[in-house]
Write a structure and sequence with these properties.
By secondary structure, the chain is an alpha+beta fold. The protein folds into two domains: 37 residues, no CATH class; 117 residues, no CATH class. It is built from three helices and twelve strands; from the N terminus they run H-E-E-E-E-E-E-E-E-E-E-H-H-E-E. Strands 1, 2, 5, 6, 9, 10, 11 and 12 form an eight-stranded antiparallel β-sheet that branches. A hairpin with a 2-residue loop joins strand 5 and strand 6. The longest helix has 24 residues. It is elongated, with a radius of gyration of 22 Å.
Length: 158
């Protein structure tokens, strides 16, 4: 039935009406994802302070554990939703396939309670002007986040 006029579609157009409804729904669901992917991600200004982790900390992230080394974590990327701080050494992962070391750090969200997450990857690749993947081409350029709990006790260094 036509939504405005209250008329029934002829039988030969029913499949077209279903396709149009699916396409409309798909676009409505995809639009927020694309808009969220286009948030600005910029390298942190030199004046941005760092955070200090006093002792090595182990947290469960996803299917494994991550060992966060003690030391100064420098701000690398700033987004509207939070800041990425790079660890002074590579993060050690335990229980994720095989134990390994990876470049990464701590993400602190701007949301209430400042939730934290681990992130992995090279921030220089993330902020490149040339997108290397389809997701980068549409703005999905932030490292993947692995939330953990409880938060790591940090000291802010300016």
């Amino acid at each position: 039935m036509h939504p405005v006029a209250g008329l029934a579609y002829p039988s030969k157009y029913k499949h077209l009406a279903k396709r149009m409804k699916f396409a409309r729904t798909f676009c409505l669901l995809l639009a927020p994802v694309v808009m969220a992917a286009c948030t600005a991600i910029v390298p942190a200004p030199v004046s941005t302070g760092g955070i200090v982790v006093g002792a090595n900390e182990m947290r469960v992230c996803g299917q494994g554990k991550v060992l966060f080394p003690a030391g100064l974590y420098r701000a690398q990327l700033v987004t509207a939703s939070g800041t990425y701080y790079q660890a002074p050494e590579q993060l050690r992962t335990v229980g994720v396939l095989i134990a390994q070391s990876e470049l990464g750090g701590i993400y602190i969200a701007n949301a209430p309670g400042n939730p934290q997450a681990a992130w992995f990857g090279d921030p220089q690749e993330v902020t490149e002007s040339k997108p290397t993947t389809l997701f980068a081409a549409i703005g999905v350029r932030a490292p993947k986040l692995w939330p953990y709990s409880p938060p790591i006790s940090l000291k802010v260094k300016k």
